[in-house]
Amino acid sequence: MSKQHKEALALGREQGRAVRTYLEALELHKPKRGRKRTPDSIKRQLADVERRLPTADPLSRVHLIQQRIDLQRELASKSQTVDLANLEKAFVKAAREYGTRKGITYAAWREAGVSPQTLKKAGIGRGA
Question: Nearest to residue 38, comparing CAs of 77, 78, 3?
Fold first, then answer.
């Protein structure tokens, strides 16, 4: 394999990683319907689950245990911060070339949750 071929493969992996990471962050942080859950409300639910566990019947106990696991996971994810600005910057740098190479249209990017402003920064237009 030539040096140029290896460099092209490395560039493709880097671009794919930037695109994937940005799209995953968008997916995790997209607004959800209904009232927003705060860390305090999650902690209150956890306390309620812990209070009910000792007296629960075996079937209810397993449901409560799963609810506790889900709430703990959600609470942990709330404390993690994602630098969306840096992820967007890397996406903007990679998206046009990556999208052209993979045949990804403006409409597909939009449906995946990428904003028109971000696509414009990346040089991806409706006619592209």
Answer: 78
